[in-house]
Design brief:
single chain; alpha+beta; 16% strand
């Protein structure tokens, strides 16, 4: 038993030391990149600027350029897809609560998707004309949007896989037209 206690203490000290050295190394997340004509949608292979509504950019380990998505739904599908084996470092989405124009949210609206609130099942569609996962930096903004446009307010981890990975037709049929909630 005494050896077990000593080993446990050593493991705790080693984990703490590793965490401290990681913090000291100053590992910083890549910053969001401004949209340009060179930003091409990962799935659609079209210029992202040609599409309206919120967008996503995913920064991968060992890749200095983000992967772009014409819709937030597609970006979330990418990080959840079993076929995509990339190491996402950070996912940025447009905070539509800060956007002054739905069609072109602007480069000053990027937020970390892990901190966002999302509206799913609303009447608003994304840049490709399909159901969208609409991000907001504040829960109150998401709730106000859902009150006007329908939908359900959720966090990133609560977005059903079927909503982002399933066929578009399934998303439209699975949404309650009265409440906007996913069935």
């Amino acid at each position: 038993m005494n050896i077990f206690v000593r080993l446990s203490a050593i493991v705790v000290v080693a984990i703490a030391a590793a965490a401290c050295s990681e913090q000291q190394s100053g590992t910083e997340l890549p910053q969001p990149v401004a949209l340009s004509e060179e930003a091409v949608g990962h799935y659609c292979n079209m210029t992202v600027l040609e599409h309206t509504g919120p967008k996503a950019q995913i920064h991968l380990a060992n890749n200095q350029h983000p992967i772009w998505f014409s819709q937030v739904r597609d970006g979330i599908a990418f990080i959840r897809s079993p076929e995509e084996q990339e190491d996402a470092v950070v996912v940025y989405v447009n905070d539509m609560g800060k956007a002054t124009d739905w069609d072109f949210p602007g480069d000053d609206t990027w937020i970390d998707a892990s901190q966002a609130w999302f509206v799913i099942g609303s009447r608003k569609t994304g840049g490709m004309g399909t159901p969208e996962v609409i991000p907001f930096g504040r829960e109150q903004s998401a709730t106000a949007f859902a009150a006007v446009n329908g939908g359900l307010v959720v966090r990133l981890g609560d977005i059903p896989d079927a909503y982002v990975l399933g066929p578009v037709e399934l998303n439209q049929e699975a949404t309650n037209p009265v409440t906007g909630a996913i069935r």
